[in-house]
Amino acid sequence: MNLKFLIYGCWLFCSINPILTLNSFAEESSKINLTQELKKGNFLIGLKQHLGAKSDNFKEKNNITFTTKKDFLKLHSINGVKHKSKRINIVLKKITLKSPSTIERVVFGPFASYESAVKQAEKLKEKGYKALVAFPKNWEVWIPLGKNLPDKKLNYKLFKKSYKSTITPFLVTEYSQHKLQGPIYISSSEEIKINGINFGKKFYLAKDSYGTWTLIQKIKFDDYLKGVLPHEIGSNSPSEALKAQAVIARTWALYNSDRFKIDKYHLCISTQCQVYKPPVIEYKNVHKAIQDTSNLIITYKKKPINSFYHGSNGGISASASESWQIKDYPYLNSMIDGLDSLRKSFKLPINSGDELNKFLEFADEKVYGNEHSLFRWEKIISNEVIQNNLVKNQLIEEKLDLVDLNIIDRGSSGRVIKLEIKLKNYKKSIVLIKDDIRRILSFLPSNLFTINKLNDNLWIFKGGGFGHGVGLSQSGAIEMAELGFTYEQILNHYYQGTKIKKIEILSQ
């Protein structure tokens, strides 16, 4: 796991009239070191990204309200503002700059996944460029604009934007308002409500790399998992499946904890990370699964693994290189995910649509996870839908007649890794590769499919599974738990050659 982080910010806690002396609490919070936060058992979670943008949910009032019932809230801003109350209201305002500020950079992307963006960043770093992975709307890779531009074949664009104003937070009270400078720290000894919803006890408001702001929660590992498990695998899942999910969610979060380091936090709360919502209900079985696996992670050669997981693999798991433009991991392999008798009937690789159709039509009861709603699926799609998706993703400027869809290549699991789209009167075919297939053709639940033409306007996609298919299948884990497998057996099944280890250092 790569835990190389920058130290972000200098946190000064003073009064409304700036005071130069720091108390012990201020000294403790004067620096944010993401690596140290992990060692203390904390994640910094980006609860709300891009605050102050036009698409921001708070745009009507542009305010964030923090409230408590009994204990006081404490606010500290880096510019010396200090406030104590049971209600804190922060308003985001656009402040006109004395002179416009211009930002220029070279941008690669968008990428369908963080993994593909990281791969591009690594290639650029090898060539001597300072590359950063960012997420303004989609995954991108940025390098500074300089004299030596990369090869034009690398498909980048030059970004230049002038800003006449800046988004600035203000502490607004009944009698006054005070300009704040991030990072802004807000805490209480009791649960804090943010815009009426209970979240936690410690928060930051920090400026991001896009001119907007992020609301960040500082949270203990176990409390984070309480908000992940019910929304990833479901609170009603068998206990051994919940334990397996707790271990992989903890492992995944640690391995991917530098995902948003450009914006001063570890992880987001959407499907770009792991789905997290503040736990409104205390599920005893979820809490027990987390307690029973406390500080346990999956390792390979004594290091945490990249513990990918997904909803359903359709009966065949995928290797990492089938889903993303990255190197394979030795513990993530393509395999038939079911009983031994099924593995004897079907052998990998699956190279053709006919072979895949035979597997998709095979008896479901021999496959783990066949109860998932998208274990088998069928989509009838019109030319117009495909054309609209190509236009939306700026692959073509206007709608063009669709001539053909052609699967050029499949991975060992039978998943489509290269799809050709032929258009009338277009200079060349459009070829979608791996994760870009589902990003562009967003109606597809997975890359495990066949295509047939029904008529001049309609295509039928038949497939199986939901998600990328790499690592643990949640529906498969649930069925294995129901069949009596332990969480250790489930994890060893999906992450071959790995070990489960306790990481005591993270609780110190």
Task: Write a short abstract of this structure.
This protein is α+β, with helices and mostly antiparallel strands.
Query: What structural class do helix, strand and pairing data support?
Result: alpha+beta
Main β-sheet, in a few words?
12 strands, antiparallel
Mean pLDDT: 89
Molecular shape: globular
**Low-pLDDT stretches:** 1-30, 56-60
Distance between the termini: 19 Å
Cα Rg: 25 Å
Contiguous helical run count: 14
Oligomer: single chain
The helix content, as a percent range, equals: 10-25%
**How many DSSP E strands?**
27
Strand portion, in percent?
25-35%
What does this structure look like?
With 508 residues, the chain is an alpha+beta fold. Among the domains are: 7-95 and 169-220, no CATH class; 311-470, no CATH class. The chain is built from 14 helices and 27 strands.
Task: Explain the layout of strands and helices.
Elements (H helix, E strand, L loop, with lengths): L6 E2 L15 H5 L3 E2 H6 L2 E10 L11 E5 L5 E5 L4 E4 L1 E25 L2 H13 L5 E3 L4 E6 L11 E17 L4 E3 L4 E11 L2 E11 L5 E8 H6 L2 H4 L6 H17 L28 H9 L3 E5 L2 E2 L4 E2 L5 E2 L2 H4 L11 E2 L3 H6 L7 H8 L16 E6 H10 L9 E9 L5 E8 L6 E4 L1 H6 L8 E5 L4 E6 L8 E2 H9 L4 H8 L4 E4 L6
Parallel strand pairs: 17-26
Antiparallel strand pairs: 1-2, 3-14, 4-7, 4-12, 5-6, 5-12, 7-9, 7-10, 8-9, 10-11, 12-13, 13-14, 15-16, 15-27, 18-19, 20-25, 21-22, 22-23, 24-25
Helix pairs in contact: 6-7, 6-13, 6-14
